[in-house]
Amino acid sequence: MNPVEAGADEVRNIFYRANFIRDLDIRLDKFAEGLCETSLVVQERLRQQHGFVHGGVIATLADHTAGGAARSVSGTKDVLTVEFKINYLRPASGDRLRCSATVLRAGKTAIVAEALVYANNAGEEVLVAKLTETLFVADDPKARAG
Amino acid sequence: MNPVEAGADEVRNIFYRANFIRDLDIRLDKFAEGLCETSLVVQERLRQQHGFVHGGVIATLADHTAGGAARSVSGTKDVLTVEFKINYLRPASGDRLRCSATVLRAGKTAIVAEALVYANNAGEEVLVAKLTETLFVADDPKARAG
Amino acid sequence: MNPVEAGADEVRNIFYRANFIRDLDIRLDKFAEGLCETSLVVQERLRQQHGFVHGGVIATLADHTAGGAARSVSGTKDVLTVEFKINYLRPASGDRLRCSATVLRAGKTAIVAEALVYANNAGEEVLVAKLTETLFVADDPKARAG
Amino acid sequence: MNPVEAGADEVRNIFYRANFIRDLDIRLDKFAEGLCETSLVVQERLRQQHGFVHGGVIATLADHTAGGAARSVSGTKDVLTVEFKINYLRPASGDRLRCSATVLRAGKTAIVAEALVYANNAGEEVLVAKLTETLFVADDPKARAG
Fold first, then answer.
1. Least CA distance to B42: which residue of chain A?
2. Which of A14, A95, C88, D36 measures 20 to 30 Å from B18, CA to CA?
3. Is D18 on the interface with A (CB under 8 A)?
């Protein structure tokens, strides 16, 4: 396996072994060098008081997908979220979220990734949030997913 | 009821009517002018692949608690999260999270709030994350919770 | 004049009347709906202790250019920076900075804009920073540049 | 000299050797473990189009002071700003700015610092901005100020 394929295997593994991601049922749709795409069918329990998808769900999806994109450029090393900023652009109505994350800068010790979250409402996709995230590349192999 | 008491009632209501908050079982512990405190018992399904609490859970807790603090200074008006930034300071181990949020600036159209998240591991509390959030005060009464 | 041309006039005016922008000698290169481009020749006094352009100069350039982009979609109303986040991606060497800002979301009360800053080193352009910014649309005409 | 005193010497040096900081005339007022305080007399050329201090000046002051606080806990190693977020809370009128920065988390590879900026208007101090910043600790001694 080349590094990207090995990374894809590990990212699929992380998606499976991360309880909260499995609980939200976030799916890995695409994984390539510098790119990660995911989606989520909105269960009723993920909504907030006005019936929109809760901001915490959107942040979780965006953070995890940005982490996947970062993992695609970190070789065999694990990545850790140091911080992120998210802008909520529109209320997320509808029953499906899609997220696409790309790497803005891949350094040896730090990676910066961005994620766009779209809500699908009756067949029309709307951009609902944008995240920018800084991740560290873990040196310690024990810190790796495993 | 004075405005803070009325706000407390509404915030309790929001905590109850927001499915995702009820799903995570986030509890409102304290509510006063410019302050909101919450807590959460960590269910196994809220963890990530290394056994720590997932960053998305921490962000949701911090965002919602900052929103509660903002709601305590917005009179009868609803508040909406425009954006937030969160720094993850340490891995969140243990079985309980506590969050304390305060208002940094209460404007007529925008409120800035901050939230600190602590993890309780075997009786010892550790600061695991800090969030800064901008919220808008909703003019439209139809946008209100309710 | 159409609104974008009127906005361009006002943005040129702001660039001229904002002392600090004139002091740094930031130039307006392009202005269109949802877009603003600027540049700056690096004076020696704008560097930091390692000889790179100081982060504060880069932040000022990015913030001001994002404000220009926001102003291109706010009609006759002024815009105010509420907050921004900037990631420094590489050290800014060389003698010229270029900035390109676009609008991510133009709401009635809030605008979200992004700016990319490039450094020109011996003819080669490198991406050195990325900013995301939230601006308010000022309702009060007295708050307008004037 | 103990590490904090050595750090203070180096920070004073950085303030002196960083052209842009000298150009803005930012002064180091206090330096202790986990703390840095600075101030700036507002020259007319540092204002924006409405006569307030330009946001870029405020960001530069806050970033540099947060860097000073981080430097107080990094031993002999240099620190580099990875990213920051700043919230502008009120317009900065008056003729003097004061900044106080503290360390929120001092890790081996990353430091998180916060800075508060106050404007002094006719003897009264007002909080005008708050910054949160992530810095890397530079391993390479060649990256050190020097």
1. A20
2. A14
3. no
Domains belonging to chain A, first-starting first, are 3-143 (3.10.129.10)
DSSP annotation of D42: -
List pLDDT tens digits, range D8-55: 777 788 777 888 988 899 999 999 999 999 999 999 999 988 899 999
Q: Are D46 and D53 in contact (CB under 8 A)?
A: yes
Residues C57, D56: Cα–Cα separation, whole Å: 7
In this complex, the residue of C20, C61, C85 whose CB is nearest that of residue D83 is C85
ipTM summary value? 0.91
Q: What is the tens place of the pLDDT at every residue in C95-143?
A: 999 999 999 999 999 999 999 999 998 889 999 999 999 999 997 644 4
Q: Give contacts of D103 with chain B, Cβ < 8 Å.
A: none
CB pairs C-D closer than 8 Å: 110
Which residue among B44, B50, B64 sits closest to A56, beta carbon to beta carbon? Answer: B64
Residues in B closer than 8 angstroms to C87, CB to CB, are none
DSSP states along chain C: --HHHHHHHHHHHHHHH-HHHHHHT-EEEEEETTEEEEEEE--GGGB-TTSSBPHHHHHHHHHHHHHHHHHTTSTT--EEEEEEEEEE-S---SSEEEEEEEEEEE-SSEEEEEEEEEEEETTEEEEEEEEEEEEEEP--GGGS--
Instruction: Report chain A residues whose CB lies below 8 A from the CB of C112.
Output: 87, 89, 130
What residue of A is the nearest CA neighbor of C89? A105
H or E segment at A51?
A: none
Q: Measure the CA–CA gap between C29 and C38, rounded to whole angstroms.
A: 5
- For the ranges B48-52, D134-138, D141-145, the one whose mean pLDDT is highest: D134-138
- Residues of chain B scoring pLDDT < 50: 141-146
- In angstroms and rounded to an integer, the radius of gyration of the C-alpha atoms of chain C is 15
| Cβ of residue C126 closer than 8 Å to a chain D Cβ | no
- For chain D, give the longest Cα–Cα distance: 47
Q: Answer whether C117's CB lies under 8 Å from C131's CB.
A: yes
**Cα distance from N-terminal residue to C-terminal residue, chain A:** 18
